[in-house]
Amino acid sequence: DAGVTQSPTHLIKTRGQQVTLRCSPKSGHDTVSWYQQALGQGPQFIFQYYEEEERQRGNFPDRFSGHQFPNYSSELNVNALLLGDSALYLCASSLAGSNQPQHFGDGTRLSIL
Amino acid sequence: AQSVTQLDSHVSVSEGTPVLLRCNYSSSYSPSLFWYVQHPNKGLQLLLKYTSAATLVKGINGFEAEFKKSETSFHLTKPSAHMSDAAEYFCVVSDRGNNNDMRFGAGTRLTVKP
User: Is the peptide bond before A101 cis (omega within 30 degrees of 0)?
Assistant: First the structure.
């Protein structure tokens, strides 16, 4: 039973470029959340997808967008990359419900030059 | 909105001695509380969760945490530290009325000395 898988594991981009990160949830999970973890900090909630719709959003600009597919997998897109977007991007999946724990992937390390 | 404060950014213990990682929370609703562990360059692994059942919660690897509503605390403990416990630990709060929006603390780095 595969857990949450994310791709790619590492990515290097330059300022102004666009990036797409991918996530496959744990088998049986229907909800996907994305987090940004800057170096030395805790993860910050970006947004959550359920039934192919953005259900909740944290304090991130519109440059950050996402998508969920019918098979529950998800993408995170970031446009007009800034140096400050350098971080570990974590995907977490869970079952819908207010007290279900989230299971995390190992993340994508994004570096902006 | 809910929030979490981890009271220590770094805790250092000797192998075989007790571990205490402190967490205070703020929540408008009845909270769910979690502790996650993160090893270097890895994602987060769930240690334990509190969701309004027993206030003393047992998790994996010998960790446990006690929910104290009067103190708005959810401290993580382990009777005897092992070298493999060295990692970053995150306390997390989720308002059950808020669709699983999880808020993380800043983390506590646990160092275990031989």
Answer: no
